[in-house]
# Entry
Amino acid sequence: MSVVRFGVSLEKEILDELDDFVNKNHFSNRSQAIRSLISKKLVVKDWEENQEVAGAISLVYDHHKRDLLNKLADMQHDFFDIILSAQHFHLDHDNCLEIIAVKGKAFKIKELADKLIAIKGIQHGTLSMSNKQ
Ligand code: NI
# Structure
């Protein structure tokens, strides 16, 4: 992607806040920070418009819970066409962390994430929304 420079006029107070944002978030310069802020907005737009997107679903659960593993597997087979891969980590004796990488239409990914997170026994679940840029 080619890089284009352009000038931006801002009130001093907003510029100070931007520099504060740059420092607190460890960006190396203002351009990177602004790029990240714009990208966040574009990702939200892509998800709202049901575009082709990518993301990750994280689930934490106790694998001893009855029927949980079967339901997790059934659900992932129902949505196999949008799942890129899944990785399972044993956090301790009882608890597991599963991270499912997904790519496809935003609404379908959201549906999968909602259904997985709602499975009885899931302790915590998140959908990390990204796009393909
Ligand atoms: Ni495990």
